[in-house]
Amino acid sequence: MKALEFSSALKQRGFTFFAGVPDTILKGVIDVLSADSEVRYVSATREEEAIGIAVGAYLGGQQPVVLMQNSGFGNSIGALATLPLLYKIPLLLLISWRGYRGKDAPEHSVIGTCTMNLLKDIGIRAETLTDKNCDKAIARAVGAIEERQVPAAILIKEGVIS
Amino acid sequence: MKGHEAIEKIVRALKGDELVISANGMISRELFAVKDSANNFYMLGSMGLASSIGLGLALTVPNRKIVVLDGDGNLLMNMGSLATIANLSPRNFVQIVLDNESYVSTGGQPTASGTVELEKVARSCGFKLCRRIEDANGLETLIEELLRADGPTLVLVKIESFWKQVPRVARRPEDIRSRFRDSAKHSLAPALGRKCGIRS
Fold it and tell me: Which domains does chain B carry?
């Protein structure tokens, strides 16, 4: 699907505050968000920082989204555990799934293999985005957030968003 | 000056409508002991992120001053945050760094702030007003000046490494969140977003 289509689907669900660290897979989405005057995209230096900014935006009344690569999710497990998971703060995490089934640069292989298990182990439900399930994946992630008031993730593999 | 003395003076200098994010460890505990308020968000873990939470708030609640009560160890753990804050330059952002040049909660190990002048790092990043203070006498006046100025502003408050022991924050994290979010809502400017299905 097109980045614009995916971004519009998020906007329709009321997500208009975004913070993140770039990744190649997310490039199109970040470009669309950055150019859209109806939303705000904040570029952070690290993923933990993006989580902190998103939590601040939530406390300020927004429904925030955090964008990151899965290696950055690895960086930010402690921040997720001691901030949104501890305080029960709903965030939508868009995580690019580098190293999926080992088909990527070697530095992505370890995290690529265990991304889903890491999410599960810290209590974050995850949906995997495909060409055909955009609305359903977002709806299910939002459903998980509503039900549990903690972050939920949408994992995005290479080639799904153009 | 002593840490609790600094926090007492800072609280006195605040007008009362500021939203305060306090760093984990002794800073949150002492703030809770000095004056608990619905306007305080006590960060219990996530070391380093008080300034980032403050930034997210400053961008979404532009009509209130956001005060981050930070520590030197916290600032050093997320120093990139200074660049992000300066890059976006929210006018309502005030960062007060209580600097004892050590990690007191974990046994007093020294931090780099004994040699690195952190307020100059903030200035280099582009903070609009940066100060360092060692004398307790001028602290209240200085905080008032910072609150009046266009942000982002930062002050490094040099304190003794000793903190008297105070109890942990006696509130559940979810309660801290809900109470604070309700308090911030009272001033909510027209939000960027439409409502979605997530309850607050």
Answer: 3-185 (3.40.50.970)
C-alpha closest to that of A86 among B126, B43, B65: B43
CA A142 to chain B, closest CA, distance in angstroms equals 7
CA distance B187 to B42: 20
- One pLDDT digit (tens) per residue for chain A, 162 residues: 999 999 999 999 999 999 999 999 999 999 999 999 999 999 999 999 999 999 999 999 999 999 999 999 999 999 999 999 999 999 999 999 999 988 899 999 999 999 999 999 999 999 999 989 999 999 999 999 999 999 999 999 999 999
CA atoms within 13 A on the CB side of B191: 22
Q: Per the CB < 8 Å rule, is B78 touching A38? A: no
pTM reported for the whole predicted model: 0.95
Is residue A48 within 8 A of residue B78, CB to CB? The reply is yes
Percentage of the residues of chain B whose pLDDT score is greater than 70? 93
Question: Which B residues, 15 through 44, put their C-beta within 8 Å of a C-beta on chain A?
Answer: 21, 41, 43-44
Enter the CATH code of domain A3-156. Answer: 3.40.50.970
> Tokens 């520590």 belong to which residue?
B71
Closest CA–CA distance from residue B129 to any residue of chain A (Å): 22
The 3-state DSSP class for residue A23 equals coil
Q: B52 vs A43: CB contact, 8 Å cut-off?
A: no
> What does each C-alpha distance from A86 to A31, A122, A150, B177 come to in angstroms?
32, 11, 9, 10
Report the sign of the C-alpha dihedral through residues B160, B164, B165, B169, in that order.
negative
Question: CB A45 to CB B58 under 8 A?
Answer: no
Helices (H), chain A: 3-12, 27-35, 47-59, 70-75, 77-82, 84-87, 109-121, 134-148
Report the alpha-carbon distance of residue A85 to residue A44 in Å, rounded.
20
Per CB-CB distance under 8 Å, the chain B contacts of A142 are 196-198
Torsion angle, alpha carbons of A92, A97, A101, A104, to 10: 180
| Residue numbers in B near A54 (CB within 8 A) | 56
